[in-house]
Known about the structure:
By secondary structure, this protein is mainly β. Helix content is 4%, strand content 43%. The chain is built from two helices and 32 strands. The strands form seven sheets. The chain has a six-stranded antiparallel β-sheet with strand order 2-3-29-28-27-26, with no helix packed on it. The longest helix is centred in the N-terminal third of the chain and has 11 residues, at 5-15. The protein starts with a helix and ends with a strand. 50% of the residues are buried.
Amino acid sequence: MKLSYSSISIYLILCLSSCDSDHSLNNDIVNISPTTNAPCVNGFAGIYPCHNFDLISHISLSQMNANMASDIWGWTDPTTNSEYALIGLDNGTAFIDISNPSSPVYLGKLNTASVNSPLRDIKVYQNHAFIVSEAPNHGMQVFDLTKLRDIINPPQLFIEDAHYNGFGNAHNIIINENSGYAYAVGTETFQGGPHFINIQNPTNPIAAGGFISNGNDPYSHDAQIVTYNGPDSDYTGREILIGSNQIEVVIADITDKSNPVTISTINYSNVGYTHQGWFTKDMKYFLLGDELDEQTIGFNTRTIIFDFQDLDNPVFHTNYMGVTSATDHNGYIVDDIYYLANYRAGIRAIDISNIEDSNLIEIGYFDTFPSNNNVGFDGAWSIYPYFQSKNIIVSDINSGFFLINNPSN
Length: 409
């Protein structure tokens, strides 16, 4: 099994002393009230450093009977418009009803499919959650999220609705909701490149091939996959993959699942570990995070920005340097705001409206790890900023679930 550098680091630092095989819910701790309603005043929301973000609620790891948190995603029930958080834990996936943001309800957990692991990733398609982990022999769990509508006496222990075993471990999963395909990356198949799965019938996932880049490294740590509608008219309507492949970024046309094609690759100076990136709304630029450059090179948090207006000839555009030395992790874009999970520096919100002029400005933050802003693998793992309510959910490795918002929204 091939593990990324970050997987190994986080596992050794945070999990060796705490991972166990206890999959049961602990009903003695679930009634602890979450921290709620701490406005950002004079730079703090309670104990948490902040700027332009209030703390609405918090649920600890102990309340979810877990030792670590990893990925987070969201689901909005199309029937009720209720919002839910889905958070990866070392021993399973937790589901939280956030319809009342200041009083979230931990509904329960879907246990890991094999053994515990600090790496668990979740995405959503057609009211189903698709869950992978770096736990060996885990495969992909499929869970019908509509089961969360009428939970009595939470928390409950949930059971998966389908299982896909075309691979064992996976580092991450990406879904293109337009095409109805899921892409598991970092598996033992296709040299770690994307493993294609047809999920158009969510409870009957079907293997659909895979992709091995002809660049310098086929192993994808993460990716974004879109039905392309950007400035390069050569690829309009094509299914395009942007892979973060450890030492380079790979652009590929994967429309034809039987014949995926590498379009181009690009690298950059001072590579540490090419980790994860996201398109701007107009698909002109791609913002990339390198997870190890702050540690190996020694500068502040760096976001590398590429000009992708010609997918055959991507070029470096500029670097954005953050205000702390913290390690960066997952970043997502909503309109002109780049939301970055910045590990020990928490969540940073960056205005990218003047990205063409290389003028990016931090406009807010919420620090879920108040101890320090140093390099390291603690704190904010990921963020989901796509709810209609504009509430933002955060997973913190050490502290669990946070719900925050910008009161000006």
